[in-house]
Structure formats: structure tokens, C-alpha cells
Amino acid sequence: MLSKKASSLCHGEDSSYFHGWQKYDSDRYDKLTNPKGIIQMGLAENQLSFDLLESWLASNPDALVMKRPNGESAFTDLALFQDYHGSADFKNKLVNFMARIRENKVNFKPDNLVLTAGSTSANEILMFCLADPGEAFLLPTPYYAGFDRDLKWRTGAEIVPIHCSSSDGFKITMCALEEAYQRAKKLNLKVKGVLVTNPSNPLGTTLTRDELNHLITFSVAKNVHIVSDEIYSGTVFDSPSFVSITEAVMDRNLERTDLWSRIHIVYSLSKDLGLPGFRVGMIYSNNKTVVSAATKMSSFGLVSSQTQFLLANMLSDMKFTDKYMKENKERLKKRKETLVSGIKLAGINYLESNAGLFCWVDMSHLLVSNTFDAEKELWEQIIEEAKLNISPGSSFHCTEPGWFRICFANMCAETIQVALKRLKDFSQSINSKKKAGSCSRQRRFLLGKWVSMLLPYDPEPDR
Ligand SMILES: Cc1ncc(COP(=O)(O)O)c(C=O)c1O
Questions:
Q1: Given 245, 302, 318, 362, which is the most exposed site by the fewest CB atoms within 10 A?
Q2: What is the DSSP letter of 197?
Q3: pLDDT > 60? residue 456
Q4: 256 with 223: CB under 8 angstroms?
């Protein structure tokens, strides 16, 4: 009855990442009404600084009621037809904000910016612009679980994973890039580019200079695009500091080469300002043809003029945004430290990180075997017994079983303590079950040995 696209399974929704959200929705934790419910730690949302946004709104009510600084109403202008180029005022404020996040080391031109309904839409539009159905983008693993939907589902583009390993902190190496490229070729897929998240979701780490240089060298050699999803660029709360792909390309004096027009940045206000519901995203590209095509495509997911008006007002208050960014980072850092001390107490190791709204943790010691089936079993146990929704590494295409992503910024300080207590109790109960299992195996082994010693000795047992 439905079209092939509508009934296609490559939406990616059939993964533990999204199943966890469904489970959480059916049994949400609430301190008073459902204290035994599931705590959501599978959603990269930032709720730590809402009070700052709300206090700005309280002192700037004109922005909400659509009044201009001169007291005139902007209602009619905002309510009438808007074309897909977006508000010039908002775009100016946005490029300025993006430059400040990058310590003004990079300059952005508003004409190179395309407004989209979140980064979800920005990533998809870029795929439509850069790849035909059946052509591929290379993505380092582990990668954001939503990319199967955003990059592949409607565009028909393919993702070929660049396999990164825990042995070197999941770094992107030249060898891994080349190996993925060759694998794509063997599959008869034309590689159109590499897409990275910087800072990485799910690792919570910024790309190093070496990694950025590998990407640049690779994309020059293979003549391919680089898409850098920098949605978490304003959530870098610890050293090393964030280096954007643009800065890395400029540092190698490559602005006047072809590569410059193959660099595309994706950004949104969903994470840094904690506004995923507002659906404000963007593509920044130095490629005029991409900007023009993407602008036309943005018709299918525009940002409402009312939202643009409100946020243009907020972003023009630089005193507020600077204070917000500083305070928000401090809160995130503190919250991450709370999470890390809790998971350490639970005997769980983690990848050192400096950014994002999550921590990438290694729970492989709790698996019954080193397999993805065992990882799924553990994930189910965590959600059913510990009542925590965390996301298993397999949903991020991690190649090593036992890694999980734990989000830490979408709850209050009290709830995270409940979550950490549950995690500790759960981890201790699995460890003692494992110990009991290995003791009884040991007992069985010793008993077998003892029985065989009592039997008469036969020097030629195979006779
Ligand atoms: C790396 C990355 N890209 C894109 C998105 C989608 O963000 P948006 O809400 O702006 O569509 C997310 C959301 O988690 C993300 O982590």
C-alpha cells in the first residue's frame, strides 16, 4: 500500500537507541509519582541552564511579544510570507555567535549560511546536495545513532564506517580512513566525502590536530568533501580547546585551493543553547552552488520567523550570551565530574572527555561473553532491573561490545544521584553473580579433579 521509501527499514528506528526512548516513555521516573520508573540517560539534552534563558526572557518580554526595540510591533512582518533565505538580522547574529564560539579565529559570512529545521535537516540536505543514491560517505565509528536516518533514509546515500578502536581512544587514523575507502571501493560505492562530529557524539571528545590533519590530507588526496557536524562546539568545557575544521584548513593555508569549497559545517542551537524544540539549525559552506541548492531545499524545513525574531534578539545581547556560554560550560563540567565519580564508584571505566552532554563508558567487564548479543542482554537488564535508559555501543556502530553512552545533562542534580546509586547497585549485583558463578565453576572443577585422583590409575587410557 505504501511507497518503498515509506516502508523501507533503513530509517534506523529499529535500534536499542530508539527502543530505549520508547521504554522510558512508558514508565518515566518521577520522584513523587513514579519513583521506581526509568531514568532517561539516553537523550543528549541540556537542561542545566534553563534558568539563565528564562531570566533573559523575563527581562526581555518584547522579544516574546514580537515588539521591536523602538516599541513597534513586528507581528505583521513576521506573520506574512517568508522566503527561504531567512532573516538577515538573525543570520548576522548567528554567524557572529559561531565566530565567538571559535574565539574569533574563524570568520563567517551570513551569505554562506542556510537555515534549516535543526541539524537533522541540515545533515540530510547536505547529503542530498553532495551524494546521489548509492554514493557513500565515510563516518568514523562510533557515530551518532540518528545518522542512519538523517543521512541515508530519504537520500538513498550510503554510510561506510571508518573503524576506530578503543586501543587508541577511538582516534581517526590515516590507516582507518584508507581501509574504509578501499572497503567502499570493493562494494562498488563511490566515496563522496567524510562526515565527522566535532566534538564527537558519542565520545564527548574534540578532534585533535592530528585527526583534523588526517582528514584534510585524505580529502585532498581523494578529492572528496568534508562535512563537520559541530553541533557541540559550544559545549567544550575542558581542555584541549575546540579546533574547527575551518581553522585547521586555514592553518595549512588551503583557503585558496579546491578543498575550501568542499568544507561544509553543520550547526544548531539544540545543544549549546539547549533549544532542540525550537528547531534551529544551519549549514555553512564556502561553496556557492551548495549554498544555493541547500537554500532551495530548506523550503521543506524552515525555521519559523517568530523563532528567528526571538533568537536574533537573544543573540544580539552579547553580554548575556557570553555569560551564558561561560556559566553553561562550568555547569556541564561540574555535572560530568559528578557522573564520573559515580561511575568510578560503580567500578566502571570511561573514556576521558572534554565536551558534549554524555560520557562513553566501558562496561565490557559486566558482559557474559564478548559479543553484541551479550551487550544487548546487559542493556535489557540495565533498563529492566536498574531502570536506567543508557544507549548501547552497537546503536552507535561501535565495533567492540560493552561500550555504552550515558547522558548527564538532561536531569536535575537529585535525579543523577538516584541514577548513580542504581548503577552502582546494579554493577555490584552483576559482579557478585559473576563471582558466585565462577566459584561454583571452580568448585565443580576441583571436585572433578579430586574424583579422578581417587580412580585407579590407567597408564594407557586410549587402549
Ligand atoms: C551529532 C548530532 N547531529 C545532529 C543532531 C540533531 O540535532 P537537531 O536537534 O539540531 O536536529 C544531534 C542530536 O543529538 C547530534 O548529536
A1: 318
A2: E
A3: no
A4: no
**Contact between 386 and 421 (Cβ < 8 Å):** no
H or E, element range at 362: strand 358-362
Q: List the domains of the chain with CATH numbers.
A: 11-50+322-433 (3.90.1150.10), 62-317 (3.40.640.10)
Which amino acids are annotated catalytic? 144, 229, 231, 271
Cβ of residue 276 lying under 6 Å from some atom of ligand 1: yes
Confidence of residue 447 (pLDDT cuts 50, 70, 90): low
**Any bridge partners for residue 73, and if so which?**
67
Q: Report, in angstroms and rounded to the nearest whole number, the Rg of the chain calculated over CA atoms.
A: 25
Please report how the helices 209-222 and 174-186 are oriented relative to each other, as an axis angle in degrees rounded to 10.
Answer: 40
Average pLDDT over residues 154-173: 97
Taking residues 408-415, report their average pLDDT.
96
Q: Write out the DSSP string of 7-19.
A: H-STTS-SSHHHH
Q: Smallest Cα–Cα separation from 125: which of 151, 146, 145?
A: 151
Distance from the alpha carbon of residue 148 to the mean position of ligand 1, in angstroms:
12
> Which position has the grid cell 541540556?
46
What pLDDT is recorded for position 420? Answer: 97
DSSP conformation class of 241: P
- For the cut 90, the answer to whether the pLDDT of residue 460 exceeds it is no
Ligand 1 proximity of 197 Cβ (cutoff 6 Å): yes
Give backbone dihedrals phi and psi of 180, rounded to 5 degrees, phi first.
-65, -40
Ligand 1 proximity of 46 Cβ (cutoff 6 Å) = no
Q: What is the rounded distance in angstroms from the CA atom of residue 337 to the CA atom of residue 254? A: 39
| pLDDT tens digits, 81-93 | 888 889 999 999 9
Residue 75's SS3 state is: helix
Distance 270 CA to ligand 1 centre (A): 7
Specify whether the CB–CB gap between 231 and 282 falls below 8 A: no
Q: Coil, strand, or helix at residue 358?
A: strand
Residue 44 beta carbon below 6 angstroms from any ligand 1 atom: yes
* Residue 324 and residue 49 in contact, taking contact as beta carbons nearer than 8 Å: yes
578503543: which residue's cell?
Answer: 166
**Helices and strands counted in the chain (H then E):** 16, 13
Give Cβ neighbours of residue 249 (< 8 Å, ≥ 6 apart).
216, 255, 259, 260, 263
